[in-house]
Structure formats: structure tokens, C-alpha cells
Amino acid sequence: MVLMESYFFCASVRLGVLVICFVAALKSTIIMWLIFTNGTAFLFSIIRIFESHYKTSAIVHDSANWIEQYPKELMMFFQLYNFCHIVTCTVAAYGAYKLKKYHVIPLAIFEFLYTVQVVVLVIISLRIARHIVPLATLILLTLGLTFYAMLVAYDTLALIAFIEIMFLVWSERYQRLYGADPLNPVLMDRSLKGMPDNPSPVLQQPIIIYVMPKVGQKLWDMQPQKWWKNEIIQKEIEEKEDSSDYFQREELLSKVLLRNAINGKHLKV
Length: 269
Prior knowledge:
mainly alpha; 2 domains; elongated; transmembrane helix; transmembrane
């Protein structure tokens, strides 16, 4: 059983993968453009926010010191990461269009890592925002960030579902039943045997004879008889047989003897 059969209950999983590829490529392109235009300025602004709210955290201080020492290497890593993400989006879009399962696996790995990053950033951002924004804004911010994290996780599950569907449609059993083209499935048994295209042909119902009939069931055209009626009919048959034997022995034979006696008297006279 696959994880999902449709994308947001209105589109196919294949179309959902194409949408995910486009959105993910656009997101990585925007991040690369920000890095090219601003450089490390946004990183230092993020560092200042973390240092102001996590003054006693040794991890935050060590990370900030490492970023200040190697800003160019970090920028190169971000650029390379986003470039690879764009490439995997392109490959996954081609795989979704041509129904290639292995082309989508790299994007599924990237989206899983992105899901983990989003969840961590959402938790840290909400912990920082509770000291800055009022309660109403914090509630709206929590709902928005939670929805975005769930959306990213849903996209990852959609990619995994597409991979499962591709493994299913390219399996030997599926191709034996529906043909080698997943976009145009055909019942192979009907095409091989030359059956008509009528989806509901009129078939003659077979005659079924039950060895053990059900209670109250009609056997052919005879009504079911009760057990006491069967006993009465059997007694009547026995009485008829006995009376016929009796009449044959007593009355018929007596009439024969009488007729012979009469004939004998006429012969004597």
C-alpha cells in the first residue's frame, strides 16, 4: 500500500512531484541570489540574534566563532548545496515526466534533510520569538510556521509515494496484468483472448444444483414439503399398494373363478 494516491486530493502524485520540483528549484534560486547580492551580511545578522538570546549557550558561541572565522567557505558550501538542490529538482522533474523512479530519489533525500532543517529552525525561532513579539502575534506565527513545516513534510511523503508507485507499476506482476505502458494500462487477458470491449457482457447463468439444499429453498419447480406431510404421503402410497394387492388377490381372482364357474355350468348344460 502506497503512502498517498493523490496530491492534496485533487491532483495526481506525478503532477505533485512536478510542482514540488518547481517550488524547490525556485526556493534554492532565491537563496543563491540572496547570497550573491548580500554575501555574508545576513549570516552576521542571524549570529547577532542568536548571541543576544542565547548568551549562556556554549554551542551558540562556538558556532558563531566558527562562522566568523570561515565565512567564505560557508558561503561556498551554501551555494554548492543550493546548486545541487536545483540539479536534483531538474532530474526529478524529468523522472516524474518519464516515470523514472531512481531520478526522484536524490530529491527525496534533499527534501528529507530540508524537513529536518525546517523543524529545527521553527523550534528555535519560536523560542526566540516568545521574548520579542506579543502573544497574539506569537500564536499566528506558531500556526504559520507549523503549517509550513507540515507542508514540507507532506511534500517529502509525496516524493516517497511516487517512488513506491513507480516500483509498483514497473513490477513484473503489474506489467503482466496491465501492460508495459503505465500511462495507458490495458487488461492483458482481454486483449490476448480477443474478448469484446463490452464491459458488461450478458452471460448465461449456470444451473446450480445444491447437494445440501437450504431451508425453504426451491428444488427445481417443487415446493418444499414438511416432514409430517412426507409421512402422510408415504402412508397413502403404502395403503394404495396394499389395497391394490389385496383387491388383486381377493376380488380379481374371485371374479375369474366365478366367470370360469359360470362358463363351466353353461358347458354342462
